[in-house]
Amino acid sequence: MAPGFRLRTLKSALLEGSLVRGLAPGEAITALSDVSFEVRKGEAFGFIGSNGSGKSTLLKLVAGMLRPDSGSVAVDGRVAALIELGAGFHPEISGRENVYINGAVLGLSRREVDARFDSIVEFSGLADFIDEPVKTYSSGMYVRLGFAVAVHTQPDVLLVDEVLAVGDEAFAHRCLRKIEELLASGRTLLLVSHSLSLMEGICDRVLWLDGGRARLVGEPRRVADAYRESVAEAEGRRHHEDKDRAQEGDASSGVEPAEAPLRWGSRQAEIVGARLLVGGEERYHAKSGEPVAVELTVEAREPLDDFVFGVALATPRGIEVWGTNTDLEGFRPARLEGRVRVVVDCPELRLAAGEYVLDAAVHARDGAPYDYRKRLLSLSVTAPTAEVGVYAPRHEWRFEGGVRWEGPGGG
After folding, report:
1. Same structural domain for residues 292 and 375?
2. Is a pLDDT exceeding 60 seen at residue 297?
3. Are residues 128 and 235 in the same domain?
């Protein structure tokens, strides 16, 4: 899909006689190309990919908000779309009036909205604000009302684009329960989200879009793991490029590269290089249980007899997963000078599937930092099974008595 026209201002339309104008060749962007898929009735189908990959455009095509330049989109049944925050709401009128207007847009009669109004308000949790102008609502309140109206139209196909991330935790859980009810009753869900764990938990199948093209479609964990590896490889390449640029800047100008916002310390000793080794080769994605090593290159600007090396892993949201340093493990410093290589070997890094960030530090034994680098590297971990939490210990199940299993887990 490559839109060829752009809406104009009213002034330009009056002056030139048209509300739209053709785009110059360089202005047109192909949003989607050669994307073909079919979603079965009662299926939860997800779309993942980076920003700008075409996910939202695709949902708008299904919703009928856009028309493709070529190809076709066929939808069987009533569609309710929750795609853009506040879309379809008039800010100057009350939530109550917007419920009726939005319900009418989604195909409900006034009598049908009357019958469902109390349930809509109760689900949204906005009884105290329902007669206030929508312009006074927060973004989370927009989502509450929009989702409540959409799901109470009893759509055959529900389209949801990331907006659940705006609401609070309790409402998000309520939305997920409602989605499960809709799926159980034979409704169909098309979902866009950057939360891979959410996609793995809800969807039957997932389509990975990359630059407007279908990269992979299939079982959610397999597609999500392939996407994680691709993102990790791209981050690894950027890490190399940033490191090369920094080294070129040092050599050519004698000026040190700009300070990163998550770095501090006296620089008496400095972390000048870092990389992850998975199975002996540098990469930034691993399967749970693979051997992973953290390699640091540290340079002391002056001889030191008080020093500690440390590393730590955390989730992107800052939840600490694991950390250690040489002082905690009983190493007593004697002498550090010049450039040294520090390696922390983990023979089996048993993390659950997900994204992780690495901090590294050189500091004095009293904690005074020489060089503390937060979020220095990123690691993407995939796993063959879905588990809860961040740690995936080696384990097995045993049963005795009258219990029998079928399928992969039971042999």
Report:
1. yes
2. yes
3. no
